[in-house]
Task: inverse folding
């Protein structure tokens, strides 16, 4: 049973976490290269946010949303 857990350790340390070790090595060279993945995620988030806002504007311009107040009279 001990070999089974050592096998799991070997899988995670030497195979699955290898890309993170490479990123850790880049951190010593340049801040921008170390945070390259973060920049990519921020760009994806910005594009998704822009797309979502344009879709909301399209539906708002077509007046497709029911904006009548029906649940609470005080609103």
Result:
């Amino acid at each position: 049973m001990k070999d089974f857990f050592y096998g799991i350790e070997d899988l995670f340390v030497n195979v699955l976490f290898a890309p993170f070790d490479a990123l850790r090595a880049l951190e010593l060279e340049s801040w921008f290269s170390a945070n390259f993945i973060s920049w990519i995620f921020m760009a994806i988030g910005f594009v998704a946010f822009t797309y979502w806002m344009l879709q909301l504007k399209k539906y708002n311009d077509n007046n497709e949303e029911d904006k009548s107040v029906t649940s609470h009279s005080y609103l």
